[in-house]
Design a protein that fits this description.
Elements (H helix, E strand, L loop, with lengths): L13 H5 L8 H4 L5 E2 L5 E2 L4 H13 L4 H5 L11
Antiparallel strand pairs: 1-2
């Protein structure tokens, strides 16, 4: 992305980076990243950009990170959220 100082790895495209992301609004993928999970197991999107912006960036930009694996539906170490 033009505003990022980091370049994508050779051969990587933005489309390729995002194609395996699970975009469903479900706690399994987005809980603790872009949403909070309530006691009933549903997600709340009430937080603002400052609350989740960096986590979302990390998850989208780094597929190998824990949050990157989580939003792609891959095995990851669940953190307390």
């Amino acid at each position: 992305m033009s505003w990022s100082k980091e370049t994508l790895p050779a051969g990587q495209t933005v489309r390729g980076l995002l194609e395996d992301v699970r975009w469903e609004r479900e706690a399994d993928y987005w809980g603790g990243v872009a949403a909070k999970v309530n006691d009933k197991g549903t997600v709340s999107w009430a937080g603002g950009a400052r609350d989740s912006g960096h986590k979302v960036y990390e998850a989208l930009n780094n597929p190998a990170s824990e949050v990157g694996r989580q939003i792609r539906g891959l095995p990851y170490q669940r953190q307390n959220v």
